[in-house]
Design a protein that fits this description.
CATH class of the largest domain: Alpha Beta
Helix content: 40-55%
InterPro entries: Ferrochelatase, Ferrochelatase_AS, Ferrochelatase_C, Ferrochelatase_N
Protein name: Ferrochelatase
Bound molecules: ligand L6N33NVT, fe (ii) ion
CATH topology of the largest domain: Rossmann fold
Strand content: 15-25%
Number of strands: 9
Family: Belongs to the ferrochelatase family.
Number of helices: 12
GO molecular function, one term: metal ion binding
Radius of gyration: 20 Å
CATH architecture of the largest domain: 3-Layer(aba) Sandwich
Organism: Phenylobacterium montanum
Length: 358
């Protein structure tokens, strides 16, 4: 892929901006409430008219701040998501410098609910004067609540140069799947290859009504898990489950807590791997490492093994680089790919690349 990219580049270096989308997290205790407000004020998260949503967001962020602050306090008062994402951005930029030497590739970070916000990233990218912009969500599975929300924020903010394309989703990308499998095998070995173990793929949950409205997230999470199991080979007892429920609505299940209880009742321990998060953050470091570890102990679910998030795994960063190079080489809309219901793909996912028309 890198070869054809280079072959097309006979002139001056093509300037390529690669923009990593992520959720963002508070960088200090006083940022927790405004971060929560930004999240709940997003119509992708609470689908009611703005007149109702803003007061609701004010109220929820006010009520939730104490428990959220206590959880962030367990991580030193701040989310590690930005430093983790910065490290991934640096590794990806370094790899792309070798894979696409005739391009000048620079990575940027656009967070949805805390700094660096999408608008600031869009200004920085515009100053870079790119020929090409590749939007790369650090959400392998597409959701209206994450990828679509970030794409919308980008469209509203970017006024710079270049052809803008987005990688919509990559739930079964080879590097992603291999990295997950290697992380799982590493944790399994480190735990002494325990027997009587269930592999739990734990993903962030969503309200059921979001899935019923056509969001492909759940089916893509299941596709990732199935691909990882196939890559692992051998006989694995495995299950997909969903964590981090918020609010009164019914969320998709089974919940990670239910899955741990079920495993305990069957006399099994669990090895839990985050499948929709590619970095460590509050939902891995607090929920998985603390809350569910305590629950497993109480339920007699032993051992409880936690697989680290992908972070800087070589195969994962390599997979991201392949996606970017593939995107740059690809004429939009002609490559084959399994059609699915991505809003950003207009019902089709042509090679999972979509051109952003401004
Ligand atoms: C796959 C990724 C994510 C989906 C889907 C998602 C949907 C979603 N989230 C909330 C509410 C909250 N999420 C919070 C934190 C948070 N969420 C994600 C990812 C997804 N969310 C990440 C990476 C993070 C961590 C940020 C960090 O600081 O490290 C929070 C804040 C924490 C808390 O108070 O529990 C809330 C609230 C909803 C309602 C939702 C879908 C409707
Ligand atoms: Fe897609
Ligand atoms: Fe979330």
């Amino acid at each position: 892929m890198a070869e054809s990219l280079m072959a097309r580049d006979a002139g001056p270096a093509r300037r390529v901006a690669v923009v990593l989308f992520n959720l963002g997290g508070p960088d200090r205790p006083s940022a927790v409430r405004p971060f929560l407000f930004n999240l709940f004020a997003d119509p992708a998260i609470i689908q009611v008219p703005a007149l109702v949503r803003y007061p609701l967001a004010l109220m929820i962020s006010w009520l939730r701040q104490a428990s959220a602050k206590a959880n962030y306090a367990r991580m030193g008062g701040a989310s590690p998501l930005l430093p983790e994402t910065e490290a991934q951005a640096g590794a990806l930029q370094a790899l792309l410098a070798t894979q696409a030497p005739s391009c000048r590739v620079k990575t940027f970070i656009a967070m949805r609910y805390w700094r660096p916000f999408t608008a600031a990233a869009a200004r920085e990218v515009a100053e870079f004067e790119p020929d090409e912009v590749v939007l790369l969500p650090l959400y392998p599975q597409y959701s209206t609540t994450t990828t679509a929300s970030s794409l919308k924020a980008w469209r509203a903010a970017y006024r710079g140069s270049g052809r803008v394309r987005a990688i919509c989703c990559y739930p079964t990308q080879k590097g992603l799947v291999e990295a997950h499998a290697q992380r799982i095998l590493g944790a399994f070995e480190a735990a002494g290859r325990p027997e009587k173990l269930r592999l739990l793929f734990s993903a962030h949950g969503l309200p059921e009504k979001v899935i019923e409205a056509g969001d492909p997230y759940q089916s893509q999470v299941e596709a990732t898990a199935a691909a990882v199991v196939q890559c692992l080979g051998g006989e694995w007892d495995w299950q997909v489950c969903y964590q981090s429920r918020v609010g009164p609505l019914k969320w998709i299940g089974p919940s990670t807590a239910e899955a741990i209880g079920q495993a305990a009742r069957e006399g099994l321990g669990v090895i839990v791997t985050p499948i929709a998060f590619v970095s460590e953050h509050i939902e891995t470091l607090v929920e998985l490492d603390h809350d569910y570890a305590v629950l497993a102990e109480q339920e007699g679910c032993r051992p409880y093994v936690r697989v680290p998030a992908l972070g800087l795994h070589e195969a994962f960063i390599g997979g991201l680089a392949d996606l970017v190079v593939g995107c740059l080489n690809q004429p939009v809309g002609v490559s084959p790919g399994a059609p699915h219901q991505c809003e950003a793909c207009y019902g089709q996912c042509p090679g999972r690349v979509v051109e952003i028309v401004r």
